[in-house]
Model the fold of this input.
Amino acid sequence: MLFVKKVQFLFVILFLVSFCSFGQDGYLRLDNQKKIVYTDVATLEKSKDVLFQNAQKWVVKTFGNYENAVASENKQSGKLVLKSYTPLSSPSFEYLRYTMTVDCEDNKYRVTINEVEGISKSQSVTPLGKKQNDEILEKEILLKTESGRKKKSIAEESLNQAKTDNDQINQAMYSLLASLKLVMSADSDL
Done:
C-alpha cells in the first residue's frame, strides 16, 4: 500500500514538472480559437460515481466552501462546473478567475480550465489569452531591434515581467490540475 502511494505521488510530481517545464517559455496555452485553455484527461479504474465524489472532495479541500466554488453539478452526467479564484504572485495580477469543468465517466475523467481572467491589485479584470502571447512576441522583437543601452534595459525588464506573469499563470493552472489528479487517483478517503 505504501509503495502504491509513493508511485501515485511520484506520478503527480512528474505530471506537474512536465507541465511546468512546458509553461516556462512565457506563453499561455491557447486552443484553436486562440483562447486560453488548460486540459487534462486521465484514465483510472474507478466508477463515474467515485470519480465524481473525489472531485467534490477536492473542491472542498481546495476551496473550502463548496457552494461558493461550484456553479453547477450534475451527478447523473458526472459533470461539475466551478467558477473560482486562485491567488497569484505575479507582477501584474493578484488573482486568477476561471471556469473549471470536470467531466467524469466510468474509468476516465476530463478537466478543462478556460475563461481565465487576471485580477490586479486595483481590482481591474483582464481577460487572458492571445493578447498576452502577442505582447511577449512584440517585446521580444523590440528587445532584439533596440540598440540603445537604456532602452534595451527597459525593454528587457518589460519582457521579463510579461513572461513572469504568463509563467505564473501557467504554474497556477497546472498546479490545480495536478492537485486534482492526486485526489482523483487516491485509493482511500481524504
